[in-house]
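Dear support,

We are seeing what looks like truncated structure output for some complexes. This example has two components. We would appreciate it if you could run it in full and send us the complete token output so we can diff it against ours.
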Amino acid sequence: MNVTIRGRSRHFRTVAFDAPSNSVQLIEQRLLPHTFQVVSLANYRQTACAIKDMVVRGAGAIGATAAYGLAQGVRTFRGRNLEKFAKHTEIVFQTLKSARPTAVDPVNAMNQVLRVMTSGETVEQRQSLALAAAEEFANEDVQHCTELGRHGMKLIRSGMNILTHCNAGWLAFVDIGSATAPLYAAQAAGKSFHVYCDETRPRSQGATLTAWELAQQKISHQIIADNAAGHFMQRGKIDLVIVGSDRTLGRTGEVANKIGTYTKAVLAKRHGIPFYVAIPLSTIDWQMRSGFDIPIEERAESEVLGAWGITSRGRREYIRVANPGSGACNPGFDVTPAELITGIITPAGIFKPAELWSHRKQLGFV
Amino acid sequence: MNVTIRGRSRHFRTVAFDAPSNSVQLIEQRLLPHTFQVVSLANYRQTACAIKDMVVRGAGAIGATAAYGLAQGVRTFRGRNLEKFAKHTEIVFQTLKSARPTAVDPVNAMNQVLRVMTSGETVEQRQSLALAAAEEFANEDVQHCTELGRHGMKLIRSGMNILTHCNAGWLAFVDIGSATAPLYAAQAAGKSFHVYCDETRPRSQGATLTAWELAQQKISHQIIADNAAGHFMQRGKIDLVIVGSDRTLGRTGEVANKIGTYTKAVLAKRHGIPFYVAIPLSTIDWQMRSGFDIPIEERAESEVLGAWGITSRGRREYIRVANPGSGACNPGFDVTPAELITGIITPAGIFKPAELWSHRKQLGFV
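Here is the complete output from our reference environment:
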């Protein structure tokens, strides 16, 4: 998407690769929304660190970063010995994999690169194929989000007020995003609408990342406390809800997403407001049989007990908000049952959650 | 309630009066939970400023502060001329009233003091009656909260997990509080239970004031993001919800309270969890016929766009969290319909919201 820097608009991807310098280029997301900076990572170890330290986050974005990181790593191998090359490749793979040990996207992305590579007969061919495969992975991510947006924009009419939660935006993918894709596509089609961004405590990705994205695209928006959406729904001020998903169960249509998503789905149901989940196909879990089996990450108490931001002196600081003697409980995700979800927006079209399983071939069931 | 200072527990009221020095004593709530300090206000102008600047907040607490402030002001009059005394009294009254022009509690409290005063025949008698009436107002506030707690504690069984929202605690009253009264009474009766405090963005009164109160009373508690309560209800981790109210409609049973209350009521209904509202009788509005007529205060955007807390250097600071270019929408309250409320806990007993009107005589209908 476009970013305006010193008054000039320029296109950026969240993740890119510069072949001449063999470097991975990432938007430094930890500095957003207060500073926009692209960091250049000179070798695969630096790329692994960037994944680990959350310079980049979001399923699509870390998948593409790992794919590029693998290509970056294998391209530095010197020699013609295929066996030594395979050993080197394995070290690169493991280094990148261990950067986010519980995430499945980097591994899936790197496996896709490995499969393509093996068709090469020489080290040089394999190095070249690795980069081509990583580029293809990133381009596919963009293409999927584009198609998702094309389907999702049909839900948006001019004058609508749309609620979104957390950041399933282009910063979480290579470009365009999932929950934001219908917004960007609708805007490009000339529709005008207003977006309410849940601030999305405790990490505030709605107030920081989604609001930043929408501001860059000049989409009308306001940030609201997570507490306020129910009131707005009651007063008829929200017409549509679109959120992303970290894992969608193909068998049941249940959706795991950022904590608070379930609450918004319950409220939308009460008020008869359409509630949509936008997902890339890689997010569908075809194996798991119940949402109660999805592990819910328990995150650090400090996230709930305070906040990160910019002081009046312009310094980025963490402040403790809560009573010093008190602890917190901080589940990172919740699970929304299929009955609360109007539809699931995918690159292959919009489906009722209960229909995912019967359309599994079309949806890339593996 | 008791506050522990340097290892020693001591009883405090939120608002008190020291007759020898003619000063109003307030807990400085803006410094909580990080610093506990009692400020002494030497004259009625200082007391009015303390109300205006929110050293003290909460319906019961600002009512008692204004009552004491009126007594404090009239006690400084020198002379025997009743007409001049009446003029002086009027100045004191208006000064205190204008400190929070939209609040009804200071005016009601001061009118109660005025009614008692007029039975005195001399200036000296009226001065003495004013203080007695202010003391009685404060004691009545405590007594009402005590009775409310006695009724409400019957809802609490040992082992329960109880959710509360915002701060309807003793800091919002002279002592004991409304939503917290059943907790303190149940604890005194030997029941053990756990409280989840919604942090209550954007002003975080749950994470700061309620958590501080519960920590002082050694009641087991944890702070949660406002987004997390739905997940906990879904997983069977919440047995009871108790909140306060800023205005309860006697005719319909609708409840206006801190933004986010409605959301919790909708979630509780879905999960069959009892949802109670604890109120002093002064909160009941017998005139208004629809919750949609309750004016919803639109508060400053900065509350949503950032947070107040303590930096690593121990300084109290506001930080900007949100994207600098984005605005916010910040309704301060929402309205919960009667159908979502299991019962209303009052000093006169627990009533179904729809029963308030038929019990109006018992509930102080005026």
